[in-house]
Design goal:
4 copies of one chain form a homotetramer. By secondary structure, chain A is mainly alpha-helical. Chain A contains 9 helices and no strands. Helix content of chain A is about 75%, strand content about 0%. In chain A, helix 2 crosses helix 3, helix 6 packs across helix 7 and helix 8 runs antiparallel to helix 9. Chains A and B meet through helix 6, helix 7, helix 8 and helix 9 of A and helix 6, helix 7, helix 8 and helix 9 of B. Chain A binds a DNA duplex through helix 3.
Chain lengths: ~190, ~190, ~190, ~190
DNA sequence: AATGAATGAGTGTTCATTCAT
DNA sequence: CATGAATGAACACTCATTCAT
């Protein structure tokens, strides 16, 4: 009860829009500086909303981060539908998949967010479900084309590719990737 | 009766020991809470040294984190010499390598630190060298046994396995891993 | 399929009822956490009304608190009429009064609110009138039975009993209280 | 780990003095605005120390408040030794005690702090011990002179006097107080 | 008339870093 | 040398209050 303080001005009215804008901004901040350095202030500034709005819509920072990660998860779904289209019936899968992963890596931001989620999930069991679903989405796109077993192996390899590329800055080697993917597809135990 | 200062028990005189203790403590803290939440205080407490010692030996937090990551890198070298011994001349490599990666994952701490480094390197070019060297160490153990190309592919796959395991909490499937590793070895383009 | 707004159940139209509900809720919150920690939000939640209603009916938090304290004052009047009935013509006054104060202390909430008011009044002259009236109400019940002077002394003692009981958690000692009350009655200078 | 920030200047060196200054400042702030409105910032300003010093010496606000209350408790001990001296062997006790309580009330601050403690203790069991000890100190000064039973009654009455005086702003009536005190002394059941 | 949205000042607390001792 | 003290910026979060709807 700290008495009598005067706010000024009330702005736009678009709650759902603000929620979305905040989650999107949080997503960008996470990609930029990582979950551990994501702050209300950084998100508010990015979203160009007043600081108070962040906690109005997301009571805790954890909530805000969670919303951002869920958004990234949703974005991944969109991306993966594109993959599914592009992979078609599985013809030339290794080559096409190689092309897709290379494109994916062109925008570091999405991949960085993915690994932020993975690392956070490694420490916070609440995030495991989300991380697992992330992996599952990739598997589900591939499974119809190469079988569940190969799909799992491919998902693993693709994550490894992305991670090492981001971490080392080494350019990806499409030929090597394609060779490896092909080998993993052929090795499918068939389950 | 002025305030008598009890002559404190003679301080340890072992600067190098302290440096090591601090770096080791920092390593543990990083594994526990991540680079982003690593603080001087947490490290000092872990190492059981006074707060001032942290900045005395490592002028900035960045220096301290870097020392911890370098230590982890060194530890990896030790671990990998064990791998080299264990893999011998490459007989049964997929199976043996599967066993080694499973053991590696038994201690989450080392793997977590690895991915902290990777993610940090993805954002800080200064750390890229270290991250690249991390990857290289693995390749160098495998290259003599399977060739440089396959070694690269195996290193990628192993990182993917570790990451997905930590992130999702899913148990590893040794059979699947072994199958995939075998396929990658066989696919070696030979370069 | 635009977002359909479910026609909300017709709102209560009972402004006076809401005012009362808010003041009552505020009274409870004050008893629970003290004036200093009473917030619009806590009151709104307690009263199960929207946040906006608190400031709609009571422009400032101070107003809301004042309303709650006035309500407590009114409640005291009700309680004291019961006292008057119970004390009858003053026969056995010390014993009966002891019984009444012990009952009063059975519900901590009322007594806590009283002392919140007292302490607030000690700092805010606007509340002095209310606090004085609180004391007066007690005196007025007792004065016809024991005279104005003794009534004042009894009111003082009763407040002391309540305060020390609440603060220390010590159980009250009815015999001691009765003895003291009797002495104060007998000492009445008669004015 | 929010990197690289530059403090400036380090000041006096007198840890014990600072602790004391902070506790004393907190005591004043509590007397002024109450425990519920006591803030780190207000205390820091009062003590003329930087904000960081408050949490350096008292990790939480609760600790700071507790230190202030303990200080007040200690102060009371000093005050009460003065009372003991002044009351001597108990001759003229009612009159002398009346004088002392009137003096006590001349400085509202001490009494306000007392009641802040009482009210806080009513809600926080941890503070009960301190509140009980406060009451006990008064009893212990009086018990040798009038017996334990009367001492308890006197302590109750004195608290009532102080409370009503502060809350209502009514001037104290020394004659009435003296009469009441005398009656309570005479009523001593002798235990 | 009634309320959810909005805001920014203010809170408790943490912490990297500097410095006197 | 080594370290406890010191500091102030920053943080997550709360809240009284105003206002558009």
């Amino acid at each position: 009860m700290s008495t009598e303080r005067p706010p000024r001005t009330a702005r736009r009215r678009d709650p759902e829009g603000r929620r979305r804008a905040l989650a999107a901004a949080a997503q960008e901040v996470i990609a930029d500086v990582g979950i551990g350095r994501t702050t209300h202030r950084a998100v508010a500034e990015r979203a160009d909303v007043p600081l108070g709005a962040t906690t109005y819509y997301f009571p805790t920072l954890t909530d805000l981060v969670a919303a951002a990660l869920e958004r990234a998860h949703t974005d991944l779904g969109v991306e993966l539908r594109r993959w599914a289209d592009h992979l078609g019936d599985g013809t030339d899968l290794p080559a096409r998949l190689t092309g897709l992963i290379c494109e994916y890596l062109d925008d570091r931001s999405q991949a960085l967010t993915e690994f932020e989620l993975y690392l956070a999930a490694a420490r916070s069991p609440e995030l495991r479900v989300l991380a697992a679903s992330w992996v599952d989405q990739v598997r589900e796109v591939l499974a119809p084309l190469v079988g569940a077993g190969a799909a799992r192996a491919l998902a693993v390899f693709l994550d490894g590719v992305a991670l090492q590329h981001l971490a080392t800055g080494e350019p990806v080697d499409p030929t090597a990737i394609e060779t490896a993917l092909a080998a993993l597809v052929d090795a499918d135990p068939g389950n």
